[in-house]
Amino acid sequence: MDCTLKTIADNLIKSYHDVGGINRIDCGNLPSKRKIAAICEQLLQLLFPGFHDEEPIASDELDMMTHERIADLIQRFEVEVAKSLRLRDVESVGDDVRIEAHRMVCEFLNELPRLRELLQTDVVAAYEGDPAAKNYDEITLAYPCIEAIAIQRMANVLYAMDLPLIPRIMTEWAHSLTGIDIHPGAKIGTHFFIDHGTGVVIGETCVIGNYVKLYHGVTLGARSFPKDENGRVVKGNKRHPNVEDKVTVYPNATVLGGQTTIGEGSTVGANVFLRESVPAGSFVSNETEYLRVIDKSTGKILHGFSDTPTI
Fold first, then answer.
1. How far apart are CA 163 and CA 87, in angstroms?
2. Model pTM score
3. How far apart are CA 175 and CA 287, in angstroms?
């Protein structure tokens, strides 16, 4: 095998010309994933002062530190937002993009106090919904759902501004850390709790009410993808379910479809596959599988039906 530098480089350069769709050459610069990740860390420091810091924060230093952090964040974030705006408005250049980036970043940062109020309700929901939780500090610092929900709530603000790329980069960064995948377009009410969280997927057009609790492995997904006359998937339709107030969805349940609504106060049991709406106050469960317990040493059935196949 030829391992010369020239051969390797020539073959790779040839692939750049032959294989399209995954090259971005002679184009405007894209937002940096690494810098967006660093910005997410800075935003978490602003949302939860003292929880994402290496050193303790003294109250008499809080004002100065907050001003410094916001000034630094504005400078860093505007650069990445400007890159994204050039994707949305390809003809925009120079001062126009910088002015719009500054406006959007300022509008976004002014939303942080409101988001903190929402996140406090999420911490309360986690404390009240998890008997293992010792205190609010443990939840804020250690529970992955708080980090994932915090990033999604911020990304949702930017998504509503029609900012390309960055909202999705933010939520995918949180996804990589927590195993919780919430699209920035999802609309989520107060007191939202995801217990354990690993493997949860919440789609773009989901609408989730207040006091909703999900367990690990829950999917709120799309049932089908309508296509246009050219066979391409139609974008922008309502594809994901609505979950009304005070609903609980247990582990590994799958709820699909943009016309599917889980009515207020309902409970969806573990491993349920649901593709239709259920009214308020419903309990949805699987009744097709029966538990069977066998003594391994004697083969005697301790619990279950005798005609159930053995394993």
1. 9
2. 0.88
3. 33
3-state secondary structure (DSSP) of residue 220 = strand
Alpha carbon distance 98, 123 (integer Å)? 36
Domain boundaries, the chain: 25-179, 186-286
Q: Which helix (H) or strand (E) holds 188?
A: strand 187-188
Q: Of all residues in the chain, what percent carry a pLDDT higher than 90?
A: 68
Q: Write the pLDDT tens digit of every residue in 229-284.
A: 777 877 778 999 999 999 999 999 999 999 999 999 999 999 999 999 999 999 99
CA–CA separation, 139 and 192 (whole Å) = 13
Residue 198 has pLDDT above 70, yes or no: yes
- CATH code reported for the domain at 186-286: 2.160.10.10
Average pLDDT of the chain? 90
Please give the order of strands across the beta sheet that includes 181-182.
181-182, 201-202, 219-221, 254-256, 273-274
Task: Check if the beta carbon of residue 269 is closer than 8 Å to that of residue 234.
Answer: no
Q: How confident is the model at residue 308 (pLDDT cuts 50, 70, 90)?
A: very low
Q: Which CATH class is domain 25-179?
A: mainly alpha
Per-residue tokens: 125:
């929901």
Helix (H) or strand (E) holding 303: strand 301-303
Q: How many Å apart are CA 65 and CA 71, to the nearest integer?
A: 10
